[in-house]
Amino acid sequence: MPIIITMPALSPTMTEGTLAKWLLKEGDPVSSGDMLAEIETDKATMEVEAIDDGVLARILVPEGTEGVAVNAPIAILLEGGEDASALDGAVPAAAPMAAAAPAAVAPAGIPVAPAAAVSKPADGGRTLVSPLARRMAAQAGLDLASVKGSGPRGRIVKVDIEAAISRGGVPVAASAPVAADTSVYEGEFELQPLTTMRKTIARRMSEAKREAPHFYLTMDCELDALLALRKDLNAQADGAFKLSVNDLVIKATAVALMKVPDANVGYGDEGIRHYKSADISVAVASERGLITPVIRNANGKGLEAISKEMRELAEKASAGKLMPEEYQGGSFSISNLGMYGVKQFDAVINIPQACILAVGAGEQRAVVKDGALAIAVVMSVTLSVDHRAVDGAVGARFLAAFRGLLEDPMTMLL
Q1: Which among 232, 217, 221 has a CA at the least distance from the CA of 363?
Q2: Entry pTM
Q3: Shared domain check, 321 and 301
């Protein structure tokens, strides 16, 4: 008797999934333990294992189909000795999609936008498109009206877009505004396809916020002595180099990490990595996105060397010419938005590193000195910490060491 293979529940909360890829094709023999397909859930991609022997006789759900409900039929397996005639009457209806969520209740007089994402071809008909397929089409500049869907009820799915792209499908007119498709009330917009770099940034930031339990420590640092030292050193350089506040922050960070080595660490499943040198990743904004070139062994370099290296790396980052060894493998990160007037912010940890220092703008503030009010240039810094690797006391000791170096900057030169 034919065996119906259904969409499995791969987690206790799973109600639907995406059939990402079939690992076997119709007619292939199947043994118990063979991997049949890859299923994407809201949290992971997992392989589905066969529990019976036989032949994969019929695939009911094409790969790339999203929203397949748990327990919906996805394929039919014939046991040994059965032929195709056994399929007669055994083929269930097309695999249902997951049940739609109850309609939202809107305030009186405000209509609720339709939940289904659909495109409307020129003939006024309704074309069903999966969200993944729609994104792929937008990124490829593909006109969905030129694509024929192979999913349930003619829905356009991932494999249809891939096939259309391989055939050189009809492109959307260049620079044409793309009508909003998630709500009939959303305004028109132009879709900027994601670059590989932006995809990587999005993935890594999502991973960091999801995996690393962040906590934040903020401290104010007075900069008057540091600014005076910077002015003197630049005057003595006579144009040979020009130190920025950021150069001094990098040096102070590196020295502070040597004073508090438990902050110069990274987290991995195998254990906590204690780095021997302060390899400082510095966030640099470019037209292509955010990237973090690394000043290696910053604790062992002078201010002039750090300044020149940082300037060269920033120029290469802006031109998209950094080599992998120039932006991978740092031990600690700095993100400085002070030059934009930002007073204070919380940065996202650059995993597997355990800490990132967010640097705000130096500004004149009222401070109390010896019991009297005074004016000083003060800069707020916030340390984002991965609590899996660094505890609050360690983070506080690092910030205290860092502040001490900024407020008595000659000590960082010793």
Answers
A1: 221
A2: 0.58
A3: yes
What domain range includes position 327? 205-413
- Same domain flag for 229 and 301: yes
Which of 356, 360, 352, 343 lies closest to 384 in space, CA to CA? 356
Task: Answer whether residue 99 shows pLDDT above 60.
Answer: no
Instruction: Assess contact for 301 and 255: CB atoms under 8 A.
Output: no
Q: What is the mean pLDDT of residues 294-318?
A: 94
Q: Which one of the listed residues 387, 396, 400, 404 is annotated catalytic?
A: 387
Residue 274 known to be catalytic:
no
Asked if the model's pLDDT at residue 196 lies above 70, the reply is no
As a whole number of angstroms, the distance between CA 339 and CA 361 comes to 6
Q: Are residues 188 and 220 in the same domain?
A: no
Residue 154 has pLDDT above 50, yes or no: yes
Percentages of the chain per state (helix, strand, coil), in multiples of 5: 30, 30, 40
Which residues have a Cβ under 8 Å from the Cβ of 203 and sit 6 or more positions away?
Answer: none
Range from 144-153, 184-193, 241-250, 320-329 that averages highest in pLDDT: 241-250
